[in-house]
Amino acid sequence: MTELQDTARRLLDEGEVKVVIGWEEGRRGVRPVFVTSAADCDRLVFDTRCVHNLATFLNPRRSQVASLGKAALVVKGCDAKAVAGLLREAQIERDGVVLIGVRCGGVVGSPVAPDAPALTAETVASRCFACDVREPGLVDVLVGDAQPEPPGSGTLDERIAALDALGPDERFAFWTNELSRCTQCYACRQACPLCYCERCIVEKTEPQWIETSPHPRGNFAWHLTRAQHLAGRCVGCGECERACPVGIPLALINRKLQQVVLELYDYTVSDDPAVPAPIGAYATDDTQDFIK
Amino acid sequence: MADFEPRITAFVCNWCTYTGADLAGTSRLHMASNVRIIRLPCTGRIDHMFIVKAFERGADGVIVSGCHPADCHYTAGNYHARRRFGVFRELLSFLGIDPKRVTFSWVSASEGGKWADVVNSTVERVRTMGPFDSYHGLVGAASPADDPFASFETPAGATGDSAAAPASHTGGAS
Amino acid sequence: MSRIGVFVCHCGENIGRTVDCAAVADALREHPGVAHAEDYKYMCSDPGQQLIKKAIADDHLTGVVVCACSPHMHEKTFRRAAEQAGINPFLVEMANVREHCSWIHEDREQATAKAIDIGRTIVEKVKHNKPLETIRIPVTKRALVIGGGIAGIQAALDIADGGHDVVLIEKDASIGGHMSQLSETFPTLDCSQCILTPRMVEAYQHPRIKLHTWSEVEKVDGYIGNFTVTIRKKARSVNEDLCNGCGDCQAACPSRKIASEFDAGLGKRTAIYVPFPQAVPNIPVLDRENCTLFKGRRKGLAKDACGKCKEACLKGAIDYDRDDAFVTEEVGAIVVATGFQLYDIGRDQPEGLKGYGEYGYGEVPDVIDGMQFERLASASGPTGGAMLRPSDGTEPKTVVFVACVGSRDPEKGISYCSKICCMYTAKHTMLYKHKVHDGRTVVFYMDIRAAGKGYDEFSRRAIEEDGAEYIRGRVSRIFRDGEKVKVWGYDTLSNRQVEVEADMVVLATAVRPQPGISELAQKLSVSYDQDGFLNEAHPKLRPVETNTAGVYLAGACQAPRDIPESVAMASATAAKVLGLFSADELERDPSVAKVNERTCIGCFNCERVCPYGAIEHRDVCDVDGHVCGHVAYVNPGVCQGCGTCVAVCPSKSVELANFTDDQIYSEINALAGW
């Protein structure tokens, strides 16, 4: 913690950045904070409640954040992957942000807790299982102690396997049921650092590919499209599911596609921006056993 | 379903499959009449939303067909399509939309016979699977009158108007 | 407000027999937005086209749908007719009710219903068609030819004789290529340099040809009609304007033992050298790798270790301090004529090739390849044309020729046939026999491929007149045994093993593209196959073009090729270039993509997938002129209209003209009312 605060203080003092975006203790738990003065740096915390993916604030279209000036961002490994995605897709320049990486051993499901809960198989967020970036690679500074592997048993993958074991009709019934609650509020889109399109495709009305009416048919089109657009890009931060007000298990869909691109194209989302995303690239010997 | 005639929308590339379908015609290769072709310059142009929209608009099955790898008129469009659809069909399957309703194929300009085969096998497969009532009924409309699409730009009385039209649009009944 | 005209063609009986055309016209007449519908026997005929033109005028049509054959047949016909009637040709579409309907179905009811569906779909599409204007881009009527071998020289001469300027660039010190290394050529056995050098001089002296030798392509920007090519003129150390080709520098050079590339390693040259006496231009080049002075400079010596050539030069043309220079040339077309290299018989092999360890990896000095044999046979070669073997300079009395070394051998990395080896092997046996009358030639072959004009007669001559022994079988091992080179092979026609004690062995090694071809191809955005040969646009119908507009191919860079074919191909390429230059502006199909800069988020997915490199970055500036973002821009001169960018754009900010989302959506929608 002190290391983090000292680093932030130094960056602000030396004028390298104008704002440090990290987490602070709020009234009910941990929340994002924009620290612009060195004196406020001791507000910065990092513990198991630091769930938020702060990379979303690097979206160049968040003009209020951009107007604060050059930022330093505190990133966990998964957050760094999202920053790599933004770099890969020319949304930000590498020298336009300072990345303070924190070594992370996992987070809990919700930032709302008076103290940092201990990580157990029950409390840990399901997305932390098998994390490969406990020490983020895309960083300018790395702080924090080395962390052990998160506890947990891959419940996300187990739930996906259970769904895969069902027949298509049963799965369809499952998803119709889940998606019928969707009101197309787009909180999932707003929370996602990689959903940064200024005019989202769902807002295109000529023609209207995705019906915006919150009925199952429109909701299917919306979620199919969002998942397809994120295929190979989603970093698995889980913010979409956390943001959803009606509790749709979005992480299942995105995690499933992570499994798909790994199996088909040997691709895992990387925090190295030089590694290209799988969709938009191709190999001449890509699998085509589904093609007649 | 003995009298169920599947409705298949086909998205094909202009240079290979469309020309292959032309060749099937020139060779008088008879095939099922359930397929309606939409011509695109390249499979690279085909967006996954076309498939979703086709199902929404009443298709029971979809065909996506283009040039063989390495033969794309535009060099690489089919490679991109192959990746995109490799992922999309897994997504469809995961959400419960049986990927057997979608046929992906490479049909070259000289493969008129293969096109006929793709058409016939797709029609038979979808016929066995039955109409895609579950998707067509997603809005929950009890009858065509409730369906918001019912009054959209359809020719006056089209459902019974043209000579011996196939079975009219089945409404929401799953 | 749409006013579409629908014209249903009977096509004689072709459509009319199976589809009730009148009923189709009736049904479509009722479709919203259709202002006119009729059926007729032959729409493509003159009276048929007149009906369309009349309807356009009388009914003020905003679009035309012809329900007939495939658009591949008559789209142009009807678009022309519409244009003559005064509406934009891109407002005309065809509904394919023949190839895709009447010819493949029997049931009249079903076929008619389907024809109505197809017609309706296209009517809905045409409601969203926009008038498009042919894209016209200016053309710089200058060509760049990369490679100064026989193909490059021929292409350059044809283009120049056709009235346009050519920039010819060659990476070696002289033009001429491999043909200048050959002794005599098949099937006539005329002297290679005798027929080549007049062409070389003609190219050098041609008023429209500008020659850059000892130069390579550094960078290529732009697109068809408008290329900007940066050329690296490598440091020659000799001022080309001052040098008069006297040769005093070469005579003075103390380093005389450098392996000569021109003699395929069999001869020696000096550090400052002209590759061969008939070199064009006759200006030497200094090999800085092997020059004593430059070796000293690299070691950091305070004083230059040599300087004899500069002292000897009376014109003061030697300049040790000149470095690589860059020139830019503006051209409208690029011809790639980089030729070939041979499969290396040595131990060092590039990735993917295995080399021939069983033949000693060429470590036996008397095992040579075809080009080395040419140099031995050549009057200007290291032995003055005498048949003397490399190891001890004696005359070989038995020479074994092994065909298909590397070719047709997927195990070693190359599965194709190199085309020229059967012919030059036969030639080699004859060249040898003409010099060593009592010699013996043995050829191990798989097949004899002699398909050209006079070729079969030529190879039979080798056997029948010059006594070459042809053994059908492969060679399993070649090794040195005392003074001899033992060759172990198999005779499949007599079913026996064969051992030949040879004095010299010539391997007919595979023809491969030049090294560095993949880098050049990437600079030109041209694709190449797994063997490195450059890809033609279509193997049968477009053999001299590539998929990159404005870049053409000539000669062996596309596939193994002999001299007559290389010359023919080069002239064909020149014809394409002259065709391009025949108009001041190039007309291109306007079905290209366009970015909506308002909604583009600058992720450049489109750039990553575009096969033609048509996407550029555009800066977006605020009112004060500061760059605040960037968006994509599609160059309409380069875009070929595939639409891959459209599918991959997450915000749907790019549209493909004539295959817009609106059009496709309306086609899908039209099928809702089946």
Concise summary:
The complex is a heterotrimer of chains A (292), B (174) and C (674). Chain B has 174 residues and is α/β, with parallel strands linked by helices. Chain B has helices at residues 17-26, 48-56, 77-94, 112-129, 133-136, 158-161, and strands spanning 8-13, 35-40, 61-66, 102-106.
Number of helices of chain C: 18
Structural class given helices, strands, pairing of chain C?
A: alpha/beta
Tell me, rounded to a whole number, the average pLDDT of chain B.
82
Distinct helical segment count of chain B: 6
Which architecture name of the largest domain in chain C does CATH use?
Answer: 3-Layer(bba) Sandwich
Mean pLDDT metric of chain C: 94
CATH superfamily of the largest domain in chain B: Lumazine/riboflavin synthase
Could you tell me the number of beta strands of chain C? 34
Uncertain spans of chain B, ≥5 residues at pLDDT below 50? 150-174
Total discrete domains of chain C: 5
Q: CATH H-level name of the largest domain in chain C... which superfamily?
A: FAD/NAD(P)-binding domain
Task: Give the quaternary arrangement of the chains.
Answer: heterotrimer
Give helix and strand order of chain B, one letter per element, not per position. Answer: EHEHEHEHHH
Q: What count of structural domains of chain B?
A: 2
Describe this structure in words.
The complex is a heterotrimer of chains A (292), B (174) and C (674). With 292 residues, chain A is an alpha/beta fold. Chain A contains nine helices and six strands. In chain A, strands 1, 2, 3, 4, 5 and 6 form a six-stranded mixed β-sheet that branches. In chain A, strand 1 (19-25) and strand 2 (30-35) form a beta hairpin. The model of chain A has no long low-confidence stretch (mean pLDDT 93). Chain B is an alpha/beta fold and 174 residues long. Chain B has two domains: 8-132, Lumazine/riboflavin synthase (Rossmann fold, 3-Layer(aba) Sandwich); 137-174, no CATH class. In chain B, strand 3, helix 3 (77-94) and strand 4 form a beta-alpha-beta unit. In chain B, helix 1 crosses helix 4. The longest helix of chain B has 18 residues, at 77-94. The model of chain B is unreliable at 150-174 (pLDDT under 50). Chain C is an alpha/beta fold. Chain C folds into five domains: 4-132, 3-Layer(aba) Sandwich (Rossmann fold), CATH 3.40.50; 135-234 and 324-339 and 514-587, FAD/NAD(P)-binding domain; 236-323, no CATH class; 342-512, FAD/NAD(P)-binding domain (3-Layer(bba) Sandwich); 593-657, Alpha-Beta Plaits (2-Layer Sandwich). Chain C has 18 helices and 34 strands. In chain C, strand 11 and strand 12 form a beta hairpin. The radius of gyration of chain C is 32 Å and the shape is globular. At the B-C interface, helix 1, strand 2, helix 2, helix 3 and helix 6 of B face helix 4, helix 5, helix 17 and helix 18 of C.
